[in-house]
Structure prediction request, 192 residues.
Amino acid sequence: MKVVHFFIHVFSVLVYLTIGSLLLIMSLRIASMEHVISAVRQAYQGFWNPVQTFILGILFICVGLAFARFLVKRMRQDDALVYQSQMGRITISLTAIEDVAKKAVKKFLVVKDCKVKTELADSRMDIILRLILWSSHNIPDIIREVQEEVRHKLIRILSLEYPFEIKVEVLKVEEHQAGDENAAEPAKVLSS
Prediction:
């Protein structure tokens, strides 16, 4: 899903840049209409002109996508939690926080799948856990236990002193099938 959103954003940026550039060229009369029409006609003539235009178009698209990917990746890597502790300045990447939260949730056999997202606001951080659970357990109790485990693990491993809130979204509750590898009743927590 993220890939689709990425391409939608890149495509919309390219469309706006292309239309904006064409409007500027038209308004500033950088190229006359006859010149533009003759350039388009020339691109359609012969065999090599369309091939060269195609290769050039692919090259521009690839460079644009690579540049957009670099910007998105770099933007995500720059997201970090920075705060001052008693010992000095601490910087923790949001990816590290997500990894610790995923490891804390893995202890629960009731959780079939987990996705973690962090959102950093001005004065606090939200950790959003999106869970798919196995059925037959009290969901509010499980969620409380998961939240407490994630909170304790973040504080213990990262010495997280920054205010944060753990939000849980249950996306799906699934039944056990006879062929499942975990067909036995899952326990609440693995013993550590």
Residues 183-192 have pLDDT under 50 and may be disordered. The chain is about 50% helix and 20% strand. Strands lie at 80-84, 89-93, 111-120, 125-134, 164-174.
